[in-house]
Specification:
Elements (H helix, E strand, L loop, with lengths): L25 H6 L15 H21 L12 H4 L7 E5 L1 H9 L4 H9 L3 E6 H10 L4 H7 L5 E3 L1
Parallel strand pairs: 1-2, 2-3
Length: about 160
């Protein structure tokens, strides 16, 4: 005998429990008596009760924040190189598999974009393990492997 064909179910979404489902309020129903305006099967909080809870939460947060004002002064970014003088061009950048694959996916030249991002000359470095990983990933990453084996990248072993 052949296998029975299953019909596809179109336009169906996951069923979720509604906010006013009685199963959610089973524990509340046994602990509190139901208000007179609510249905006997559901014990939902009224709009007024919700508003009171929100007001209480806002007052509590104001009480916490009134005591201390914390302000951190911003440091100017142009002072970074005045303290760290060892960072000078040409920058040596270690390239990984994700950087290569994403730059090829977005059709960007990795070396050229590194130079524009850093506004200086760049020496991209690539390790043997990155090349091995690209070879292991197969034909899908063939272009990334060819780019990595190019003259623009310096190999680290």
């Amino acid at each position: 005998m052949g296998k029975a064909k299953k019909t596809r179910k179109f336009a169906q979404m996951k069923r979720m429990i509604g906010q006013r489902d009685s199963r959610l309020y089973a524990s509340l129903q046994s602990s509190k008596p139901a208000p007179s305006n609510a249905s006997p099967s559901l014990n939902l909080p009224t709009r007024k009760e919700n508003q009171e809870k929100q007001d209480a939460a806002q007052q509590a947060s104001k009480a916490k924040s009134d005591g201390v004002i914390r302000e951190i002064p911003n440091q100017p970014t142009h002072l970074f190189f005045s303290h760290n003088t060892s960072l000078t061009p040409p920058y040596q950048i270690l390239i990984d598999t994700n950087f290569l694959s994403l730059s090829i996916h977005h059709k960007l030249d990795p070396v050229e974009n590194l130079m524009t991002a850093l506004c200086a000359t760049v020496t991209p470095l690539i390790t043997d393990c990155v090349l091995a990983e690209l070879e292991k990933l197969g034909s899908k990453y063939r272009l990334a492997l060819q780019t990595a084996k190019g003259k623009a990248f310096e190999r680290l072993s």
